[in-house]
Amino acid sequence: MRLLIAEDELDLAEALTVFFEHNKFTVDAVNDGLSAYEYAGADDYDAIILDVMMPKMDGVEVLRRLRADGCKVPIMMLTAKAQKDDRITGFDAGADDYLPKPFEPDELLSRVRAMLRRREEYKPSVLAYGDLSLDPARDMLACTSGKSVRLSGREFQVMELFLRAPKTILSADKIMERVWGWDSEAEINVVWVHISNLRKKLASLGSTTSIHVNRGLGYILETEQ
Question: Are residues 83 and 60 part of one domain?
């Protein structure tokens, strides 16, 4: 497994490199955000670990640029910031998991392995319902109106859940478990953020299909008759 570690604390970057190499990973380590972005775009990694606070480019900006470039590699955010809003910002930008400092190396290893397992198990297929179709090859949600919009990795997975079970109520907890995993540090309101983003994108497409709130129960994808 190839791993990219971007961490500006040199001692921590070195320690993590030794630790992951001991656990059978091939590791590249960089110490600033610009290098992280360049390395991630130039090589084929199985996972990326990004510190948030880095010189030249912060980790969230690196993450946003990589996702905008179409990078689907699982990305873990490491940061001293532990506030809920910071975690939501990271997840909304496309992070797969988030681990605040200080942390135990064994927990980080477990989280990285969990990200990799979820990636191996996740095999999206082309789905359609109402006037919508979801294309996994391009991460695009298209409407028969002729418009289409690109989805982030998490938005795609949430939308896939709805398209696999249209007219079925999905609770926030169920979406959280299926998309982020039971071992994620994400708060439940990250689900609300992604659904809000999806509703806006459905509206921008002019779709007659929408995600409705069933108060106290969850969310349901329905199309106007």
Answer: yes
- Contact predicate 209/130, CB 8 Å: yes
Cβ atoms within 10 A of the Cβ of 66, count?
A: 21
Predicted TM-score (pTM) of this structure:
0.59
What H or E segment, with its residue span, contains residue 198?
Answer: helix 189-205
Structural domain total, the chain? 2
Give the model's pLDDT for residue 85.
65
Chosen domain end from 94, 121, 148: 121
Mean pLDDT, the chain, integer:
85
Closest CA to 48 of 36, 31, 61: 36
Could you tell me if 107 and 33 lie in one domain? yes
pLDDT digits (tens, 9 = 90+) for 24-55: 899 999 999 999 999 998 878 889 999 988 99
